[in-house]
User: Fold these one by one.
Assistant:
Number 1:
Amino acid sequence: MQHCIEEILENCRRYTLDGEVASYIPELSKANREEIGIYVATEDGDFFAGDWEKPFTIQSIAKTIFLMLAAKDNGIDFVKAHVGVEATGKSFNAIDYAEPLLLREHINPMVNIGAIAVCGMVKAVSNEERFQRLMTFSRRIMENDELQIDEEVYASEKKTGNKNRALAYLLKNSDMIYGSVEELLDVYFAMCSLKVNCRDLARMALVLAHHGKNVHTGEQVIPEEDAVFMNAVLTTSGMYDGSGEFATTVGIPAKSGVGGGIMADCPGRMGIGIYSPALDKKGNSVAGIRMLEVLSKSQKLSIF
Amino acid sequence: MQHCIEEILENCRRYTLDGEVASYIPELSKANREEIGIYVATEDGDFFAGDWEKPFTIQSIAKTIFLMLAAKDNGIDFVKAHVGVEATGKSFNAIDYAEPLLLREHINPMVNIGAIAVCGMVKAVSNEERFQRLMTFSRRIMENDELQIDEEVYASEKKTGNKNRALAYLLKNSDMIYGSVEELLDVYFAMCSLKVNCRDLARMALVLAHHGKNVHTGEQVIPEEDAVFMNAVLTTSGMYDGSGEFATTVGIPAKSGVGGGIMADCPGRMGIGIYSPALDKKGNSVAGIRMLEVLSKSQKLSIF
Amino acid sequence: MQHCIEEILENCRRYTLDGEVASYIPELSKANREEIGIYVATEDGDFFAGDWEKPFTIQSIAKTIFLMLAAKDNGIDFVKAHVGVEATGKSFNAIDYAEPLLLREHINPMVNIGAIAVCGMVKAVSNEERFQRLMTFSRRIMENDELQIDEEVYASEKKTGNKNRALAYLLKNSDMIYGSVEELLDVYFAMCSLKVNCRDLARMALVLAHHGKNVHTGEQVIPEEDAVFMNAVLTTSGMYDGSGEFATTVGIPAKSGVGGGIMADCPGRMGIGIYSPALDKKGNSVAGIRMLEVLSKSQKLSIF
Amino acid sequence: MQHCIEEILENCRRYTLDGEVASYIPELSKANREEIGIYVATEDGDFFAGDWEKPFTIQSIAKTIFLMLAAKDNGIDFVKAHVGVEATGKSFNAIDYAEPLLLREHINPMVNIGAIAVCGMVKAVSNEERFQRLMTFSRRIMENDELQIDEEVYASEKKTGNKNRALAYLLKNSDMIYGSVEELLDVYFAMCSLKVNCRDLARMALVLAHHGKNVHTGEQVIPEEDAVFMNAVLTTSGMYDGSGEFATTVGIPAKSGVGGGIMADCPGRMGIGIYSPALDKKGNSVAGIRMLEVLSKSQKLSIF
C-alpha cells in the first residue's frame, strides 16, 4: 500500500500543472502550485507520500464540520427542515437565488449560502462560544490538539468576503440567521481558515469511514446515522458542481476546498487526505482528483 | 382643469380598494389605504384635489433624485458606463443577478441594486456630505425648503433592510461601491424616507417636463440633456416591471414608490404628483395609475 | 432636409465597419456589410440617400405587422390578455422561459416567442389564408403592391429554424397555438423573409407616425389607438435588449431586424426607413442607429 | 425475507393516499392510486408482495435503458462528451436552459432533454432499427421476451408531448440530434410506453447490482464499468430533483418513472422493482420511496 501510494503520487504529479491556484483571496494565491501530498489512514496503519505535512487552509471542507456539529446538536431532521440536500447545479458561491424567498430546497449545506446557515445552527449562546465549540470538535475529530486558525488567511477572507456577506444578509432577510450577521461571518471565515494537513483530513475521513467511530480510541465521535447522512451528502454534492462527474470516475464520498485539500472516505475501509493547490475551474484540486481516481481503481474503492 | 382633476379623483377613488398598502417595512403598513390625492403643476397655474397635502415617504421615487444628481455630477456617459438603462424584466428588489459578475447591462438605475450604485456616484468626500447634497438638491428641485426625513420610516428601513444590504455587498464585491457599505446604505435608506406630498412631486415633475428648467424662477436646475435622459429612463423602466403596460395605457414618463406616490411628467406641458398608498402586486399605486390613465386620455397626454 | 440626410449618411458610413452581418441563417450572411441607405417620408415629401432602393428581408420588423393585424383583428385587450408588453431583458431568441408555465408577462410580442404567438392570432380559417392576409396588409401599409417573399431566405429560415420550432412547441404545450405548429411557423418564416427596401419601411412608419392614417390617401389603415399602442410597445421593446439605450440616445419608436433594417417613426412628423446590414451584438444595425441618433439630435425628434 | 417484504408492503400501503397519480398524460391518470407492489430479485431467489404482476408503463426508467445501450454502443467517454452527469437542480421536464448554447454540463441523461439526446446515440441506420434494438436490449436485460409497448399510452405521449418536442428541437438546434426529430421522438415516446411489472424492473436492477452480469445465465449483459457508471449516475440523479434526499434516507442507486415504478439496485446484493402510482410533487412514487426506506434500514442496504 505504501508503495502504491508513492507511485500514484509520482504518476499524478504532472497534473499539478493543469490547474491554477485560487486567487479570489489574495492570501490563497501565495500557495505553491507544485505541492502535492496524500495520506491514507486505515484501522491497521497509515500510509503517506509527498507534501502530506504541509499545512494549508481547510476552506470548504469546513462545511462538513459545520454540518456534522449542527446535526449532532439539533438532529438531522432539524437541519434538513432548514436546508435541503439536493445538488443545485450551481457553483459554490452562486448568488442567483430564486425569489420570492430563499427556498429550503435551493440551499445545499455544501455551497456557501447553506454552509453559513448551517454554521449558525451550531448551538451556542454567543458566536465566540460557537467558534470555540467548532474548534474543539475539529481538534477531536482530527485527533490534533494543535489545530490553529491561519490568521493571515482569516484576515484576507474577512476583508474580501463581500459576496459571502451578501449571501448572509439574504439569509438574514429570510430569518435564517439569528443575531449578528457579521459575528457569524467571523466564525465562518475563521473556520474556513483552519490550518490542516493531509493527516488531519485523513483522520476526519477515517471517522466518517467507520460511521462516526474513532477506531483508534473506540469513541463514537458522531452518531452512526449522522455519518451515513454525511457520506450521502458528500457523494451527491461534496465536490461542488463536479460531484456527478467525481461519482462516476472515483465513486467515494469526498469534500474539496479551494485551499487544495480533499477529504475522502471509503466506508468501512479508509480515510484519505489530499493536498494539491492547483485547482480546476470548479474549484477542485486537479492532481488530487487524479490521485483519487487511480487509487479508487487500483484498490476497487468505488461504492458503486 | 381643476374641475376635471376633481372629477377624475372621485371616479377613481374606488380603486383604492383594489390594492394593498406596502407591508415589507412595518412603518409603511400604517398608511391609510383610502387616502388619495393629486396635484397638477403647469407653467400657468396649479390644480389639485383630495389628500394632496398628506405627507408620505418618497421611497423609490428617490431613485430619480439619485440619478439626476449623479448625472449632473459625473455626466450621463459616466453613469451609463457603470449602470445600464435596459429594463430587466425583474421586480424592484430582485436578487437573482447573473454571475460571474454583476453585468452593467443587468443593473438598471430604477431597481434597487442600480439605485444604490448610483447613489454612491453622487460626489462627496463623506457619506454625510453625500446626504446633505441630496437633501439640498431635493429641496431645490421640489421648491420646498421644509423637506425632512421621516425618522420612524428611516429607522424601520435601516432595521429591516437586509435584502438591500445583500445587494450592496454584491456591488461592493464587484467594486461598484467605494468606502463603507453601511454608511452608503444609511444615505440610501434616509433618502427613501424623505417625507413629501403631491405638490413636491408635481414640482419636481414640472422641472423634468420643462427639460430641467424651473419655469417659476427661470433657473436651469439640471441640464436639458439630463432631463431628456431621465424621461427616457422613466418611460422604459420607471414603473418597475409594469413599465411596458403603463407606457401603453398612460404613455408618459413616471416613477412610482411603494409609499404610494407617483411622479409623472408630460414633456412641455405639466408635472403631476399622485398619492394613494394601496398598491398592486408590482408595487405601483392602483388608483394612482387609474387617475393617470383617465387624465392622459382626457387631456391627450400620451407621448406616443 | 435632403442635404441633411445625405450628409448624415456619409458621416455615418464608417460605422458599417463596426458591425457584423447576421450569420445565423446562411442566406443572410451573403449581405454586403458596406451597404447603407435611408429614406425619410413626410406628409410634404420624401427624402432619401444611399442604398435606399436595395432590397433586404424584413426579419423582426415583421413582428410589428403581426401585432398590428392581430390587434386590428382582435382588439388590443385580447392580444394583451395573451402576451404581455413588458421588456423582458432577454435577447430576441431567448429560450430560458420560466416554468411551470409560460407566463403571459414573460412573453413580449417583440421577441420571437411572443411574435409567433401573435402571428397565430391573425384571424384566418387556414394558415394559407393567414399568410395571404398578412401579405395584403403589408402591401397596403407599405403602399407597395409588388412586395414578395425572398424564397431563398424563406427556405433557409425554414431549414435552420429549430430554435423557433422549439419556442413554438412550448407555446403549443401551453395552449397558445391552435392548429398545426409547422404550418404557423411557415407563415412566420415567410413573413420574416418579406423583401422590402427603405421606402417600404418609411411608408409603414409614416402610417404609425400619423396614428394609423395614410396621409397620402386619407385612409385610416389601423385604428388610432392601435398606432399609439404600437408606438409605446416599440419604444419600450422594439430594439431588442438595446431598447432602453436607444430610448436615451435616439428617443423615437423603432423596430429593427437582423436583415439590417430599422423602421422608426416620429409621431406627427415623419416615417423613417433604414438599411445597413452590419449589426451589433444585440442584432441592431450599427450605422443605422448612428444615423438615427444624429438625425434625432439635429431635427429634435426625441419624444422625451 | 419474504415475510419482511410482505410486512413492509402492508405497513407502507397507507402512503399511497399521500400522492397523486400522474395527470400530464391523459392515459396515465387512469391508474389506480391504491395499487402497490414490490419484487426483490437476488442470486439465491426472489421475493415479492402485492401487485407485483400488474403492468404499468416504464416512463423515465427507460432513461436507464437509453444510457446503458448508448454507453455500450459508443463507450462512456463518448456519451459523457455530449451529456454531463451533474445533477442540475431542475425538474425532469425543465425548459429553462442557458443560452447561448445548450451546455453539455447542463444536460443530464436522467432528465428529459438529456435522455432524448442519449436515445439518439443508440447506434442504428434508422429510427425503426433504433427502436428494435432498444426493445431487444430491454427484453434481454429484463429476461422477458413478452415485453410490449402500451399503444394507448404511446399514442397519448405522442399527442401531448409538445414540451418534449420543444426540448428535441433545442437539441437539434445545437446539432445534438441527427436526422428526423419527429422520428427520434417516436422512439423516445414508444420506449417510455414500455409495459413492465415489478419483476421486470427487479431483474434489470439485479443485472446492475451484479455489475452487468446476469447471475442466472452468467451472461455479461453490459460491461462492468458501465454498470458502475450507471449506479453512480442513478445515485446522484436518478430520483429527479429528489435524488439528494433519497440518497440520505435510502442510499441505493435507483430510478423512478411517473408511471409509478422504481428500479433500485443494491450493488452485490439485490435488484428491486417497485410499483405504486401515487406520486409526490417531484414525480416519485410516495409509497415506493417509503418501502425502499424501510427495506434499506431493516436490511442495511445503504451504500454509505
Number 2:
Amino acid sequence: MRYSQLFGKTEKQAPRDYQVVSHQLLYRGGFIRESTAGRYYFLPLGMRVADRIMAVIEAEMDQAGGQKMITPVLHPLELWQETNRTASTGFELMKIKDRRGAQFALGGTAEEMFVELTRRFKLSYKDLPFNLYQFSTKFRDELRARGGLMRVREFTMKDAYSFDRNEVEFKKTYAQMAKTYSRIFTRLGLKTQMVAADNGYIGGDYCHEFVTETPVGESKYFTAGDYCAHAEIAKFKLKPKNLGEKSKSMKKIVAKRGPTMEDGVKLHGLPLWQQIKDLMMVNEKGEFILGVIRGDLGVNEIKLKNVVRAYDLRHATEEEIIKLGSYPGFISPIGLSKKVKVVVDPSLKTIVNAYTGANKKHLDYLNVNYGRDFKADLEADIALAKAGDIAPNGKKLAARRGSEVGNIFQLGYHYTNLMKGSTFTDKDGSQKKYYMGCYGIGIGRTMQTIAEIHHDDQGIIWPESVAPYQVHLINLQVSADSIYDQLVKAGIEVLYDDRDDVSAGVKFADADLIGMPIRLVVSAKTKDKIEWKNRAGKKIELLGLEEVVKRCLKK
Amino acid sequence: MRYSQLFGKTEKQAPRDYQVVSHQLLYRGGFIRESTAGRYYFLPLGMRVADRIMAVIEAEMDQAGGQKMITPVLHPLELWQETNRTASTGFELMKIKDRRGAQFALGGTAEEMFVELTRRFKLSYKDLPFNLYQFSTKFRDELRARGGLMRVREFTMKDAYSFDRNEVEFKKTYAQMAKTYSRIFTRLGLKTQMVAADNGYIGGDYCHEFVTETPVGESKYFTAGDYCAHAEIAKFKLKPKNLGEKSKSMKKIVAKRGPTMEDGVKLHGLPLWQQIKDLMMVNEKGEFILGVIRGDLGVNEIKLKNVVRAYDLRHATEEEIIKLGSYPGFISPIGLSKKVKVVVDPSLKTIVNAYTGANKKHLDYLNVNYGRDFKADLEADIALAKAGDIAPNGKKLAARRGSEVGNIFQLGYHYTNLMKGSTFTDKDGSQKKYYMGCYGIGIGRTMQTIAEIHHDDQGIIWPESVAPYQVHLINLQVSADSIYDQLVKAGIEVLYDDRDDVSAGVKFADADLIGMPIRLVVSAKTKDKIEWKNRAGKKIELLGLEEVVKRCLKK
C-alpha cells in the first residue's frame, strides 16, 4: 500500500481528553476514530490489525475444535425474558421494537441465542461435545465510555459457547479453552494472567478473566503466589483479635456521637476492629439486606450481591433506614425489623465484646457478641480484600491492575435450567440437559492493550503477528518504486511511504508512530543497498534486496 | 471436519412454507436457520460459504484499490437528519435511543457515516481518489421477509464508498467497479446482467443492479439487445395513433358509466388508447399529484415519484378525491383544483380527440386535446414498460426476472451538497466537494442465489470457489481415518462422513444434498483405491491416494 493513497493519515496531536497513551497512539497513527462516545470507526490500518487478531483467534479456536457460525444481532426479547436477564441492570441492555411491534434486544452476549438454536436440533450424546463461536458486533449501553477501546458501547467480540454431556466432560473443555486462550494471547504478544472472577450477569458458578497487567486497565485483582483473584471475589484469612477476652454482658448506653465509624472509635476509646460495621442495602425487588462485618474491614458489595442472589443492590437511603425503625450511623442487627435479611461475615467470629449502634440516634450497644446477642439469616464471606491481606495459600496479597482481554465462564446448567427443551438424548435414551460454558474475547480492547504494552515514546511497536504491514518502506529523494514492486511480488506486505513533499524526519517519525516491525530506507546514500532497521531495535544494517526478501519471508 | 462432530446436520424436509428451492436446500443441508422472520443464523457450513464469498469480494475490491475498514452499526440520527433520509419511508429505518437519550439509526446503508468520517480529515487533491469498503450488519425493517435470504431484515453487506475529485474521474471509478463486480460474480459462479435501475432512497442520478436471472428473484427488468433496464425505469418508444385525424371541439356529455377504463370504452365505443388515464397520488407532505397518460399505458409510480422528487407517493383515497372537487373514475386535468400538480406523459402527444372524465359523477369530456384543452405542470416520461414494447434502440423489450446480488450507484454531489464541510483542497487551493459513488453486495442473497442457480433434484452443487469443503469423503464399512488424515495434511479441506450408524444410501444422499464439488468413497470394494466422483458429473473413477491429492491441489 502506498502511503499517499492510504486513507487515514498520521496526526501530530491527539485530542486533549485522550488520557490513555495507547488511545492517543491509535488515534495519531490513523488506526481509529471515534464516531459518538464509545463507538469507533476502524480505519484501514486499524482494520488490518483487527483482522490479524481475529485470524489468530480463529486459527486457535478451530484448532481446539471450535466451529465458527453467526447469530443475528437482534435477539428476540422473549429469549432474554426466558432467562430473566432483562431484569438485570448490570447488563445495560439496549432494546428496540420493529414496526410490527416485535421486541428485540441488541445482542450484548448471546447465550440465549445459542441455546435457542441448539434446542431446535434433536441432539444425541454422539453430537456432544461441541463448541460454537462467532465474531459479531456487541452492544452495551454503558453510562461512561472510557479510555478509547478499553470501555466502549459497541464492539466486535469473539464469543464461544460450549455444550458438554456433563460436568466431568465440561471440565476438560474449560481447561482446553484456558490453554487455547493463553496460546492466543501469547501469539498476540500479550502476557496474561488467569484471574478468578465474578460471573455477574452471565450466570454460572465460576469464571476467569484473562488479564494483561497495565495501569490503564479496569480490572483490579490480587496475586499471592499461585493464588490470583479479581478484587470482586478475592478471599483472605483473618487472625483472631480478642477471643481470649472474657465475654461481658451487653449494655445499651447514650452515645452522643456523629454517624461515622471514626466517631464511634473516638467516643468509646476502643479499637476500630472491635466495632461492628453495618451496611444497609436494597435489592431490585425493594427488599432490605444488612451486611454486618468487623469494623476494620470493608463490605465487598459484589460478594454480598452474590450470596443473596440479587440482580442488583444499592445503598439504602437515610429515609428508608429511618422508616425501617433504625437510624443512619446507629444501625445494628440487634432489635432490627424482621423485614431485613441479616448477612454476617465470619470476621465477627474473630472478636468478642464488640460495640455498635442501637437503631436509635445517640444510643450504642457495648459488649455485643455475635451468636449470643444476635444471629445471622446468612453467614457468608462478604469481606473486601486489600493488599497485604493473607491469601488462602498463606501468602500476602499484592494488588494489581490490568486490562481484561478475554474471559471464560462456567455456565453449568444455568441456561439449560431456564430454557425449556435444551436437552440431548443420552445413551440410555433419557433426556439430559447439556452442561455449558462460554468464552469471550474483545477484539478492540485486545488491539489497544497490545498497543499499550508495545510502544515507546515514538509510537507503537506492533508484534509481527498483528502488524498491519510487515515492512514500512521509505524512499528519500530517489524512487523506491521498483523495490516496492519487487517486495510485493515476493509476497511481503509493505506500507510504502512514497510521499515527495515531506522531509526525511517526518517520514521517520511517521514510521515510528505507526509501528511496523521492520523499517526499510532507500536513499542516495544507500546506493544499491537497502537500510534495514527493526522498529524495536537500534541496529541499522545495509542489505541487498535479496537478503531483505529472504529475511522477511523467514519471519 | 468429521461429519459426526459437525453442528447442524441434514434434514429430510424443509418447513412447508419454504417455497424457494434454494431456501429449502440451505435449510435441509444445514447451512442456515431462521431466528425470527427475516433474521438468520448461519450454521458452520453456511458460515464457511459466506466467508468464501467475502474472501473473493475482498480480494477483488483490494485489487481495485479498495481499502477495508468498518463503521459502527449505530449511526447518530443527526447524520440521517442532515441528509433528510429519516423522512424517506422507502428505507424502513430502525431507530433506537440509548439511556442518555442519544438517538441512533441502525445502519441500513452508510453514506452519511463515511462522509462524516471523511470530512474530518483535511483532504487534499493528492489524497483522492479513494474507495472505502466494509463488511457489516445492515438492518431493514421490511414489512415482509421473503424467500429465505432473498429478502431479509438483517444481513451482512459489503458496502463501498468512492470519493473522486470530479465527475470525469468518477466515471473511471464507476467503470472500474462495474468490471470488478462482473469479475466477482463470475468467480462466484454467477452470470450477471448490469441493469440500469432507480437510485431510490440512496440518492444520485443513475445506478445499476447486478442481476442473476432466476424466476425466484425480485428484480423485474427488460432486455432488448444491448439495452437492459429495470422495470422501474425502462423506457420505450411510442408510435403515433390518430394524429392524422382532424381535431374536433371539446364537449361535455352525460356519461352514466362505472368508474373503470373499460366502462369508458364500452360507453363511448372508442379505443382504450384514445381515453386519458388519470392517477391521483399524494406525496409525503400531503400534496396532490396527478399522473396523466394514454389509456392503454400504465403509470410507472417510481418514475412519477422521481420526476416530482417525492420521498414517498401513495394513491389518493376516494374521499380525498371528492374533497378536491373531483370524483373517482371521472378525474380529469381539465378544470381541476390548482392545488394539484399535473404530470403529463408524452404519450398524450400521440393522440387527438381523446375522452376522459369531467371531475363530476356521470360527466365525461369528448374530443380532448392536450396542449389546447389542458396543460401540464410537468411533462415527463411516467410510462410503465411491458414486454413487446420498443426499446430506445429499436429492439423489442423482453421481460426478465432475477436476483439482485449487487448494485453500484452514482451519488455525485448528493451527499456532499447536504453534508457541510465534505470538501478537499484542490490544486489551486480552493475547497471542492468530492464526487461520490457507492457499491453494495449482499452476502446472504448472493449465497442463496448461487444455490438457486447451482442445484439439481438431489441438492446443491457448490462452485469450487465457495464450497464449504472441497471434498466430501465417505467411508463404507471400512475406516477412512488414515485417508482423511492424509488429505488434511496435504492441505485439502475435507468433510468426512465418518458415521457408522447410517446406510450408504443416507451418506450418498447427504453428500449430494450438501453439495461439495468432489465426492470420495472408500469401501471394501475400492480396496487400496479411492472412488472419485464430481458432484456435477456422473463419471466414477478409481484413483490412488497420490492421484487424488494431486488432482485436488491442482484445482
